[in-house]
Amino acid sequence: MIVVVDNRELVTNGYKSLFSQEGVSSAGFGVDEFRDWVESASETDISAVEAFLLGDFPERSTFTRLVRSRSTAPMIALAETKALNSTLDLFAAGIDDVVAKPVHVKEILARVGAIRRRDVAVDRNRNAIDEICVFTDGRDAEVGGEPLVLPRRERRILEYLVANKGRRVSKQQLFSAIYGIFDENVEENVIESHISKLRKKLKMRLGYDPVSSKRYLGYGIGV
């Protein structure tokens, strides 16, 4: 899930719509409500955030410490105009990247992937475990050495599980990552249906189910 912060609803709603078209869940906040949310949100909701996209507002350089107290997700600042001193100040404050508008959401997602790869020192564009390899550039996952075409939601679930390899994630965490934390139009149990279909396809390809599940603990790969 991408969190977009800007006091202009036109900006937050616009990016939410564009991210949705790319199959990526997002949530939009005004500055004050974002501060309240970061301070009070559950660990489950915070862990579902893949990146923070900060619009042009005066307080954003002071937000980095608040965000970092809760999350290690990339922080990207949107710049209305190119200004060297402003950009340097944002980097000094702890912003991971500064992008000048207009910018396509695909570029933002690519930059998020680049920051995450840099931070965890993995190979470019890919994240793998055993016979499963997922990509951050939109390519289909590779399972058993061959591409596996999956519906958008199932692919996102697989990407999230591989990104969290070695530990379990709850159904609620998966739901928040795939659908967003404020999507009230979708039942949380839909995740079970997506995972069931995904596991069947993985088992057909690999001959075994790589996804383990434990009641109350959640799902995991490589656990």
Q: In a few lines, what is going on in this structure?
A:
The protein has 223 residues and is of the alpha/beta class.
Topology diagram in text:
Elements: E1 2-5, H1 9-21, E2 26-29, H2 31-40, H3 43-47, E3 51-54, H4 60-68, E4 75-79, H5 84-93, E5 97-100, H6 105-120, E6 126-129, E7 132-135, E8 141-143, E9 146-148, H7 152-163, H8 171-179, H9 190-206, E10 211-214, E11 218-221
Parallel strand pairs: 1-2, 1-3, 3-4, 4-5
Antiparallel strand pairs: 6-7, 7-8, 8-9, 10-11
Domain OmpR/PhoB-type: 124-223
Domain Response regulatory: 1-116
GO molecular function, one term: transcription cis-regulatory region binding
Could you explain the architecture of this structure?
45% of the residues lie in helices and 19% in strands. It has 223 residues and is α/β, with parallel strands linked by helices. The protein folds into 2 domains: 2-120, Response regulator (Rossmann fold), CATH 3.40.50; 126-221, Arc Repressor Mutant, subunit A (Orthogonal Bundle). The strands form 3 sheets. The chain has a 5-stranded parallel sheet, sandwiched between helices. The protein is globular and about 55 Å long.
